[in-house]
Design goal:
single chain; alpha/beta; 10 helices
Length: 309
């Protein structure tokens, strides 16, 4: 059997919104580039979620379901997926986000044409249960300074070259990196001299609801501050300004979730308006791209993609 070009990896732990999970899976299966395997790691989910995951396997022979009964976190899930992966490229995916149809093909084309880059992410449309509400632009070629505020890559939008993980141990499975696995690995890879890129178009749809702004507990913010301190020191950016950004997640503990949500929503909507202005269009009606219907158990999934570009 020929090896697939792409290995898509996704960790799942108690994804309660099954409809969102089905749409996430469907958006991968509907890619214009079809040469991939889709590895889904069940990280100790409850029985009914596990049952839904098993139902998904019948959708397509490219889906590989693996996992364990014990929950060990996203970093471990992704590392286990990487061990199983056979592809030349490894594409991240999350269980409640959506890929736009040309994501894989454009990322593979970019990496084939630009061997100096070890991975590439994309910009993203921001959406929630009510649809697309904003846009997030990422720096085209992230530099050291772009790590101050937060990770300069939307983690589930990233596609890596396989050899990145052949040379490295993968995601760090430590308590300090829980909830910031992506931030840590991108800083670590940059310290090794590897470079990443962000394709300057929205090939991904990132779920960001008001509820998500209240999810990060103080202990996770303290851990992120530690990750920032350690890596900013190694990257030589702790002074003169880096130390202020080390404190950023701690300050976030004092800011109410609704205010963080308001700021992020405002930022996303402004970015969306600017993008529409550059494109010469101010309409808010979404263009719909239909993809084939897929039946999961007794429910019919119809994936639609509202495009802003």
């Amino acid at each position: 059997m020929n090896k697939p070009m792409i290995s898509v990896i996704m960790g799942v732990y108690n994804q309660w919104d099954i409809d969102a999970l089905k749409r996430a899976v469907n958006s991968v299966l509907a890619q214009t580039s079809s040469d991939f395997e889709f590895i889904i790691w069940n990280d100790g989910s409850e029985q009914w979620v596990s049952d839904e995951l098993r139902k998904l396997c019948v959708l397509d022979k490219r889906i590989v379901l693996a996992g364990r009964d014990e929950n060990r976190g996203l970093a471990n899930s992704l590392n286990e997926c990487i061990k199983l992966a056979k592809g030349e490229f490894i594409a991240r995916m999350d269980a409640d986000d959506e890929c736009l149809p040309e994501r894989f093909s454009k990322q593979v084309d970019f990496l084939n044409e630009n061997p100096e880059y070890s991975w590439c992410g994309t910009c993203a449309e921001l959406f929630d249960e009510n649809g697309v509400w904003g846009y997030r632009s990422m720096p085209e070629v992230p530099e050291v300074k772009d790590y101050y505020r937060y990770s300069p890559y939307i983690h589930p939008s990233v596609m890596f070259r396989r050899e990145v993980f052949d040379k490295d141990t993968g995601y760090l499975e430590e308590e300090e990196t829980y909830k910031c696995e992506d931030y840590e690995i991108f800083m670590r890879l940059m310290q090794k001299g590897l470079k990443g890129y962000n394709i300057q178009e929205p090939l991904f749809r990132y779920r960001e609801s008001y509820a998500s702004y209240n999810l990060r507990k103080p202990c996770y913010r303290v851990s992120e501050a530690k990750v920032r301190f350690v890596n900013f020191c190694k990257m030589g950016i702790l002074f003169p300004f880096g130390w202020m950004y080390v404190l950023r997640p701690l300050v976030g503990c004092l800011v109410p979730g609704f205010l963080i949500g308001l700021l992020k929503r405002t930022e996303g909507r402004i970015a969306r308006a600017e993008r529409e202005s550059l494109n010469g269009r101010f309409d808010t009606e979404e263009k719909i791209i239909e993809v084939p219907e897929l039946r999961v158990g007794d429910s019919l999934v119809r994936a639609k993609y509202g495009r802003l570009s």
